[in-house]
Design brief:
Blueprint: H1 3-18, H2 23-35, H3 37-59, H4 69-94, H5 110-122, H6 126-140, H7 147-176, H8 181-207
Helix pairs in contact: 1-7, 2-3, 2-5, 2-7, 2-8, 3-5, 3-6, 3-7, 4-8
């Protein structure tokens, strides 16, 4: 089995999974607007690391552990708490008075942005289930028949995820100069409400 088809499939999966503007995407947009490209890129690196980890766990069959109701509920509720915390933090920024887009006192280093992305992405254990299903389909299509093909697909997933977040960060940077303080507060508000909403959905799915 050639590695290239497996890598290409992983690239497409990683990109398409990251493409919808979910909580991590909202955090990425907010981070770029407030702290520049490197923070957005760091968010992408964090999301990439967890996607590759969860994809590897899915490949190893760990996704079946989510069939255990107690474990799935506990992980889901823990993830919801993390999402709500991140959303509330963004809302606090939205309701503070701002005089300029690069505000003092809110500078976030890329390493801190990376940690935030790790926590927020890992907060959704259902991602393991998704990657388990994705790799089951890949196995059925004979894309992961060898160890090298499996590794190639995992690397492709990481490349696809990072490609999307890099594209998103560059796009936001191109428009960053036109953002006023009020518009930035709107982004904070949207990100906060959006992430809290995703946390609520995660909690509902966990106890439902």
């Amino acid at each position: 089995m050639s590695v290239l088809p497996a890598w290409s499939a992983g690239l497409g999966l990683g990109f398409l999974v990251a493409l919808p503007l979910g909580p991590i995407g909202l955090l990425c947009v907010r981070s770029v607007l407030r702290n520049g490209f490197l923070c957005g890129f760091a968010i992408g690196l964090g999301a990439t690391a967890i996607d590759m980890l969860y994809a590897g766990l899915g490949l190893a069959g760990v996704g079946r552990l989510l069939d255990v109701q107690v474990l799935r509920t506990a992980l889901g509720l823990a993830g919801a708490v993390v999402m709500v915390y991140l959303g509330v933090r963004s809302l606090r920024s939205a309701f503070k008075a701002r005089g300029a887009i690069d505000t003092e006192g809110e500078t976030v280093l890329p390493w801190a942005a990376f940690r935030t992305a790790l926590t927020a992405t890992a907060a959704n254990p259902a991602t393991i289930g998704y990657w388990a299903a994705a790799f089951a389909a890949a196995t059925a299509a004979n894309l992961t028949g060898t160890l090298s093909a499996s590794v190639g697909m995992l690397i492709g997933v990481g490349c696809g995820t990072l490609l999307w977040f890099t594209t998103l960060s560059v796009s936001v940077m191109l428009f960053r100069r036109w953002f006023t303080s009020r518009m930035l507060q709107g982004v904070d508000l949207l990100a906060g409400v959006g992430v809290i909403f995703f946390g609520g959905v995660l909690a509902y799915q966990a106890v439902g």
